[in-house]
Design a protein that fits this description.
Order of helices and strands: HHHHH
Mean pLDDT: 95
Radius of gyration: 10 Å
CATH topology: 434 Repressor (Amino-terminal Domain)
Structural class: mainly alpha
Distance between the termini: 9 Å
CATH superfamily: lambda repressor-like DNA-binding domains
Strand content: under 5%
Length: 66
């Protein structure tokens, strides 16, 4: 599973995920391409898990699998 697939599975656009995390759409695009690994605060990590409806392990796997 990739970050892109998690986002698509949740039915979110890059902009919607960006808004939830307080980052730009371009940042989400960069993360999904695997160019840069996300540097998330604990709050952002929690939010990302909630909006993507995934566990920490699933999120970690998606980020590392880029």
């Amino acid at each position: 599973m990739t970050l892109l697939k998690l986002r698509q599975q949740a039915g979110l656009t890059q902009q919607e995920l960006a808004d939830a995390l307080g980052v730009t759409q371009k940042t989400i695009s960069i993360w999904e391409k695997g160019s840069v690994e996300p540097k998330l605060s604990l709050r952002q990590t929690k939010t990302m898990m909630e909006v993507l409806d995934c566990t920490f392990d699933e999120l970690l796997e998606a980020i590392e699998g880029q």
